Amino acid sequence: MAPRFLRPRALAAALAIVFAAATSAIALPTAQAATTTCSGTGTIPAGDYMIQANEWNSTAQQCLTYTGGTAWSVSTANFNLSGGAPATYPSIFKGCHWGLCTGNSGLPIQMSKLSSAVSSWSTTQPSSGAYDVAYDIWFNSTPTTSGQPDGTEVMIWINSRGGVAPFGSQTGNANISGMNWNVWTGQQTSWKIISYVLNPGATSVSNLDLKAIFQDAENRGSINPSHYLLDVEAGFEIWQGGQGLGTNSFSVTATTGGGGGDTTPPSTPSNLAVTGVTSSSASLAWSPSSDNVGVSGYRIYRNGTQIGTTAGTSFTDSGLSASTQYTYKVAAYDAAGNVSAQSAGVTATTSSGGGGGSGCTATYAVTNQWNNGFTANVTVTNNGTAPTNGWKVGWSWGAGQQISSVWNGVLASSQPVSVTNAGYNGSIAPGGNTSFGFQATYSGTNPSPTLSCTTS
Questions:
Q1: Fold held by 360-455
Q2: Which of these is catalytic: 55, 218, 233, 237?
Q3: Is 218 a catalytic residue?
Q4: Strand ranges (DSSP E) for 288-370?
Q5: Predicted confidence (pLDDT) per residue in 249-295, tens digit
Q6: What is the domain partition of the chain in residue ranges?
Q7: Per-residue DSSP letter, 392
Q8: Which pTM was predicted?
Q9: 153 is catalytic
Q10: End-to-end distance of the chain based on CA atoms, in angstroms?
C-alpha cells in the first residue's frame, strides 16, 4: 500500500458557513438529518457532535448509519483503491470543520491558553480491508476559517490495517500518557502535518490526553502556540473495504486555563547514563527533574538534534548503525512550554552486527488477528552509512503459518519466507526505514518468527 496523502477536505459549497464574528461559533441548522446518509457530503447531527461522510476521493457508494448518542457505523462501503490518497474519511467531530460548527464545543481555543483536552473513543474494526482509525485535529492561525486551515494538522492513529502509513516520514518516537507513539512529520504547501501512531494499536482509548500530545508537537516545532485549536475529528481513512467500521462512543472536552503565566523552567536532568546498547539501539536513563508546577516530560537529543520525547526517565533510541558512536543529552519541559538546560552529555557506541543481518534490521508486528488468520507489518531499517539499493527479509515459520498476500514487497519464497523490496521502496536513507505488510493464515498458536535482513 502506498503512503497516505492528505485530503483536500472539500465539502460541498452548501455546507460552508461564513462566520458572522471572528471569535464566535455558528450554531448548526436546526433541521435534523436522516439517521442514514448515503451522500458523499452528508452530515448527521449527534447532540453536541456532528457526523460527516466526507467522501472526497471516490464516487463509490458509502452510507453512514447513526444509532443514537455518538454511535454510528459505515453501513455500506466496498472501496478498492490500491494506493495514493484514501477514498474517504467518515468521522465524528466537535468544533469547526471548514466553517461548519457544532454547538457547546468551547472551540476555538488558542494553544497557549489551552488548559486541557481529553478524549475517549471506542471503535469497531472489521478484520478485512485497508484503513486507519485516526483522530484528525486542526490548528489555524486565526480563530475561524471557512476553508483550508493554515496551521497544523495533528493525526493520532490508534490503529490501522492493510499496510497504510501516515503522510511524510517517521522522524521520532514518544512516550505520552504511558503509551508508545511513532511520530511522523510532513509539510504540505500551506500547513504542517504531524502524526502520532500508537504502538501497538488498539480498538479504544480512554481519557486520552490530547493536550500532552499537542504539547509534544509544540516542543517539536510542529504547532505554533499562538495558533487556535479549531476542531477534533475521529474517524476512518479507508482505501479498501470499510463496511462495518464504527464508533461505539466518542467524547472530547477542551478547556482554557486561568492564565497567570508560568515562566519557570524545570531543573536540568542529572545522572544521564547509558544503560545498554545493541548493534542498532542505545538505552538511556536519568534522574528526574523538579519544577514549581510539574514536569510534563523530557526531550532527548542525539548529536545535537532532538529525536524524541518521553514522560518517564528512560528512553531507547533505535534504528542506529552498528559500531557507531553517538552523543546524547536530555532536557526537561513543563506544561507551559518552559524548557530546562540540556544535561551533560553521554556517549554510547553500538555493538558490531548481530541480530540484524548485513546492513539492516527488520522488526515484526502483528497488526490484526482473527480465528485462523492475521495481518502483520514488517519495518526495515537501514543501519548503514549509505542508502540501500535493495533489501531482503527472511524467516522460517514455527507453527505452519502461510502467507496469502503481500503489499509494499515481493514474496520471493514461501517457506522459508523471503520478501524483497518493491520497485519503489528499495532505496532507504541511512537511519531511515520502510515497511511492508502481509496477510496470512495459521492454526493453533501464532508465534512471531525471528527475522533476518540483508541489503544490496
A1: Immunoglobulin-like (2.60.40)
A2: 237
A3: no
A4: 295-302, 305-310, 314-318, 325-334, 346-349, 360-370
A5: 999 999 886 545 567 889 999 998 887 777 778 888 889 999 887 88
A6: 13-256, 270-349, 360-455
A7: E
A8: 0.56
A9: yes
A10: 23
